[in-house]
């Protein structure tokens, strides 16, 4: 695939991520916490570790990891009403919370975790496209921190438990003005003919592939290009996660 | 890709659909209605055509198509509580309703529809895996009937309006016991390592690709096999839809 | 009472039921299931048998039978919003669910049932008047099947337990154009001055009598005529139930 | 029918009402208001008259009358949770609100009312059986007052408008210890084999008949006795209403 | 502070309470019940005593006292929709319920109460300003009665238990037309520049002070005047409570 | 009043504020936005300016200012469930949102604002006591920025419009270990016998005074000390706000 060098709305190459920042320990109380930034997209990921599991999992010897995603009312260009005020969670929120949870569970060995629960709260403080992929990428780091915190407190199954089987990161790809591009900002997102979210493990395998033709359906060749672009982007994000965790 | 001929739980070849039945005009009141069966999975799809569009679309000259998915309490092996009684729609229901709506809109030319709304109600009477893909496949036929019904009543933009740009069908694929298979029944679904839903237009292009690693992440080769299998299944379903509409 | 032979909207005699069809085992999963049709009114009744009883009944040695009624959005001439989407059950739905539950409990010996619960889900697939009476009539058959199913699995109190004391059926009667008629279809229902639902046991006694003057209040003579007509209709329905169960 | 003179729990004859008190103008703000007492059952009925009608009735030239029933948490022997706190109206509340509304509308000529709305709020301050029948009986008086209040303010269709076609009252009857009795108190109600609510107009015709076999189904002879008893009770209540309105 | 003798809307002196009436045992079922009237404001306070405490308090040896406030739809000049119908409790209702609960707990020794719960339901039958302060003042008397009732039934910690440490009463004060006044009626309330609720114990100390500048912010001198006025009003209410309890 | 110099939990003097930080323009989209920190308490305040007012205010020539307060699930030591997931706003949230709105409206001249609406979203990212007072203090600055932003876009009543009559700030005071202290952190808050929130305008007058005896009721002398301490704290906060706005 030829990487286009045409100028994107923010001057990036088609296979170029936005500036990625991962700030660990952004909160004082949470067992793990990260403020993750994909350009202007800013998501606060807090990992809460609690002993015990939901009732349906008791006695299984296995832990549980879940996630909740939400957006502050003024994360976006115009204000959105609060879901708490409306009295119900919208379909999009539900869908993204479930995606984040599944993505993290893909790299968790629940037996090694022991009967403990980790909830990942991903709150979008500012949105500029790619909030769900930023959330997954940041939540992984918060999750890793929460697990090390639990290890230190001797709350895991044993001292050498390895609840994390691999890392996980996510990125969006899409076809904008007929060309495949990586990590779409909001302006690109609204103009994308096809929009795809790719979630990969650190070893390059796929956890989730979600592609949607917003306008014109896409053919297999386009799909292949998007998969290549997304997989490469996840590799890059994996390195940034590693670097952040090494600090 | 070698098509395995090993016996599946119900004796099908790996690339074989279940028995598909599409019964049109199953209801007396709806503008279009289909009882679609993928083996034991049975979904009632009702298309309701109403003149006018939601407020946010008024004056646009464009129509609107949306969908709602639900499952009867005893569609499944054990009874599920009603969402109406619980007082809220669950995340899975929301997600599938949105998927069906997007899939149908992918083949609709909203300008040709004129300022009219079509709601597709997809109610699962009995579930045995693949309810969302059966719903999309059946809803397309109900939608086509509702459009012809509207044409007869002169409610479309004009007598020759072509609101349908193409047909759309969907099928699930997955990796079961290490092998890619088409159109999973419930027993296969719960044992699938990877589960993917493919939505394609009649001309073989992709509208949605949603793959999830339930257990082990999947690699690119597996992903390619699944895409091949799903695309071929959709072609077959497209022919069945055509035959049903020709009656 | 003189039975009028004037032609009704669908040509029936004033004391004539619509065509009644009771299709047993319409679903594969439910312990009992019936698709009941009163003319164009079509209700799917599913009986779910589960061991155990609600908390307030534990240790009583008695079982519990309850019912939930609902209507698909496009069961009717124009589409109704889903109660799950509105986030609450309407008054009419509540009222009918309670009526069905009470009617079935009237013929249940809860001691003979043992500490088991049977939920009857009555979902109206198509409505043309008399949905609640069709639901009761069909639900009785599904209930009988669920009990025999439980007996076969040795889940009842003992092998000879008789949880069913009698059969139960229901029918609507009303005064249309000044004349008492049996089993009103929708068009008759909206024009009825008085509308009454009669629920009777197989031995001809009353379980419920619910009469409402929609327009002009009714006098005792009219009430007596309606009671005669309804009781006779229930007898006829009881025979149809017997025949269905004998198959 | 032989009226039994056996002593009931509170010493009444089988056809004897409890002490009935109707206190008009119990509130300062409402257009009509009544504290109605059937023995220890105490219901506050407030009629709110407002100009205009709900949207679906605009331009019809007709008014609208509706009712809402509720019970204070400690109206009963043990405290019930508030429906507002639970976040939803229960089935019983819905059912009774609808019954009261229908009963009052049976004596209203909505054309004579003009495009005005009257809401009857019936709040049970203390419950000792028969709250719904007390509510209907009291609400009629509050309604009559609200209409005269509106007439004085020249809000009716014209000066001689007769929105009230008749009066309406309600009473419960039931079979207790095998004998038909009138106006059951709570203790009788829980022991009743059959429980029936009768709503009649001042001229002795029926508006609603709702009979339920709580235990053993009832036969036609018993039903006839209950209807006689209830109709006679309503006549008596109609006189008490007249007397109250004459003050 | 000079007490103004200018005529208020209802002719009272600036430091004069409205006519206060406390009617005990207004209900037959509740362990304590009071109809309290501050002029035309009329609140029914019912105290429900139940053995046991909420789960989070079990085994603590301490009891719990809480309150719920609500207003009947037609307590006010124009009808308000029911919160149960709207499906949620409004902010104002929540706020007042919490205030009443805190105020009563301030005079309760939960150890002396033993593991028992008392719920105070304060339902406003008619509102003319000062409903929350009337509710607190009346609820205290209902609470005292419920405690004596429990003592008689030997449900307290022991025969000499003193769950009540002191009495508590409340009154509103405000600046109307530039002058501090006591116990505002509705008409004064809407015109008040500053509105303050004072809750005091029988020994003259403060439990709650809640002052709000509705229009112009208030200075320290005004605040001092309001505190003096409110504290004196509470002393007077305490005497009225004593007198009521002495009956 | 003698200012105690005893060491508080974090070493502050009794009349000493925590470190206060006000970071303006923390968000890119909002018309005004502030991250305000009172020690470890961190609140994100976003002001959303929109043309037009709620329906009930249309045509009045006056604008509207309102606020919504919320806390992220892991702002606190242990995770709290989301109110959106629970489907309703809790009493505390309601109460604080209303307090913030009233406090800001106290310094707004709605006529000068013109028919525009400003919503202040105050989301607590981290909580360590005093979140509502931090929210008010920060929201004022965001509000001031939103107004200047609107002035620049010529959206105010006129070029010289002065919608802000004064500044407003808030602080908590309380009696901890028997001594009055300023700006309580969480650990002090839970141990406080009395807890009071003071809201003052820049000119030193009171907008809100909310004092609650958590344990022992407080006397007038203690109340006076708390008012002195709080008023002085607000003066200090006013200077910090000025400095922040001057940058």
TrEMBL record, chains A, B, C, D, E, F:
InterPro entries named among the record's database cross-references: ExoRNase_PH_dom1 (IPR001247), ExoRNase_PH_dom2 (IPR015847), ExoRNase_PH_dom2_sf (IPR036345), PNPase/RNase_PH_dom_sf (IPR027408), Ribosomal_Su5_D2-typ_SF (IPR020568), RNase_PH (IPR050080), RNase_PH_bac-type (IPR002381), RNase_PH_CS (IPR018336)
Its domain of life?
A: Bacteria
As recorded in UniProt, coiled-coil segments are none
What are the record keywords, sorted? Nucleotidyltransferase, RNA-binding, rRNA processing, Transferase, tRNA processing, tRNA-binding
Which Enzyme Commission number(s) are on file for it? 2.7.7.56
What's a Pfam family in this record?
RNase_PH
Under the subunit heading, UniProt states: Homohexameric ring arranged as a trimer of dimers.
Q: Record's family?
A: Belongs to the RNase PH family.
Report the function annotation for this chain. Phosphorolytic 3'-5' exoribonuclease that plays an important role in tRNA 3'-end maturation. Removes nucleotide residues following the 3'-CCA terminus of tRNAs; can also add nucleotides to the ends of RNA molecules by using nucleoside diphosphates as substrates, but this may not be physiologically important. Probably plays a role in initiation of 16S rRNA degradation (leading to ribosome degradation) during starvation.
Q: What is this protein called?
A: Ribonuclease PH
Q: What is the source species?
A: Kineosporia succinea
């Amino acid at each position: 695939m030829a990487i286009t060098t045409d100028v994107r709305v923010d001057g990036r190459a088609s296979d170029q991520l936005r500036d990625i920042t991962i700030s660990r320990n952004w909160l004082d109380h949470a067992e793990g916490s990260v403020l993750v930034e994909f350009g202007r997209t800013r998501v606060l990921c807090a990992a809460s570790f609690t002993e015990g599991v939901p009732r349906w999992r008791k006695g299984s010897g296995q832990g549980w990891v879940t996630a909740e995603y939400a957006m502050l009312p003024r994360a976006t260009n115009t204000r959105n009403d609060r879901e708490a005020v409306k009295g119900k969670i919208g379909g999009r929120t539900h869908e993204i919370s479930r995606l984040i949870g599944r993505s993290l569970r893909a790299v968790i060995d629940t037996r090694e975790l022991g009967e403990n629960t980790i909830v990942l709260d991903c709150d979008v403080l500012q949105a500029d496209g790619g909030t769900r992929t930023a959330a997954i990428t940041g939540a992984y780091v918060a999750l890793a921190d929460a697990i090390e915190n639990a290890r230190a407190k001797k709350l895991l199954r044993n001292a050498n438990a390895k609840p994390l089987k691999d890392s996980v990161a996510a990125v969006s790809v899409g076809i904008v003005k007929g060309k495949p591009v990586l990590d779409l900002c909001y302006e690109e997102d609204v103009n994308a003919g096809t929009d795809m979210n790719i979630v990969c493990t650190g070893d390059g395998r796929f956890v989730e592939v979600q592609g949607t033709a917003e306008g014109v359906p896409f053919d297999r060749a386009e799909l292949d290009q998007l998969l290549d672009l997304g997989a490469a982007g996840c590799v890059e994000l994996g390195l940034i996660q590693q670097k952040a965790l090494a600090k």
